[in-house]
Amino acid sequence: MRRSIFGPEQMARRADSIQLPKELVADLLESSLRFQEVAESLEVQLDKKTVKRLKIGGKELKKRQYKVASSREDIDRILS
Questions:
Q1: What is the pLDDT of residue 2?
Q2: What does each C-alpha distance from 66 to 34, 41, 53, 71, 78 come to in angstroms?
Q3: How many degrees, rounded to 5, is the angle at CA 36 between CA 32 and CA 37?
Q4: Contact status, residue 14 vs residue 6, Cβ threshold 8 Å
Q5: How far apart are CA 58 and CA 78, in angstroms?
Q6: What's this model's pTM, rounded to 2 decimal places?
Q7: DSSP the chain
Q8: What is the pLDDT of residues 46-74, one digit of tens each?
């Protein structure tokens, strides 16, 4: 016996809602978040300016060449 596979339009016509196991929904959400993280990492790695700035920032951090801001006014003063 052959099972037919329904597309989104056919499913929408058949029911207003569907039930999925919680575990499946949790796995789908986790996979979606992981995919988003990977896509963002690739985006950063493909941007040469960002990679260069991250390397410089890492070196500055190791050498303790950074300023500490404890308020919005400090941030504005440091960045100006």
A1: 58
A2: 32, 25, 14, 16, 10
A3: 120
A4: yes
A5: 19
A6: 0.51
A7: -PPP---HHHHHHH-S-----HHHHHHHHHHHHHHHHHHHHHHHHH-HHHHHHHHHHHHHHHTT------SHHHHHHHH-
A8: 999 999 999 999 999 999 998 999 999 99
